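quick one if you have a minute, typing this from the bus. theres a chain ive been looking at and ive put its sequence and its fold in token form underneath. please have a look and point out which stretches look like helix strand or loop to you. anything you notice is useful, everything is just below.

***
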Amino acid sequence: METILKQNKNKNEVWYTLIAEEDFKEVDINKVKIVDEVHLSSRISIFNIKKYRRYKSLAPIAVRENENGEYELVTGMRTFIVAKLFSRNVKAYITDLSREEFKEKYNLDI
């Protein structure tokens, strides 16, 4: 794991390669909410949205399930935005970890 993280320049994309495919679930993007202050106050750099339209699959996101049966975004803001714009469901890893705990567990720089 350490070698993979050091070799990959974009650490944010590495975490989902460390999780078994069967641990992901397709979720309705409309049931995913942004609640963490870090997401609510973040500035997203401009990126070429058009190129994402042709992708059949997007990078997975990580979410926490809340008491209402909806999900709170843990990581994957860019995928969240693209999925919302194109009304696409996404693969998600459902965790009970907070954003900080998730960052620590998967050695993320987000």
The two ends are 17 Å apart (CA to CA). The chain has five helices and five strands. Confidence is low (pLDDT under 50) at residues 1-13.
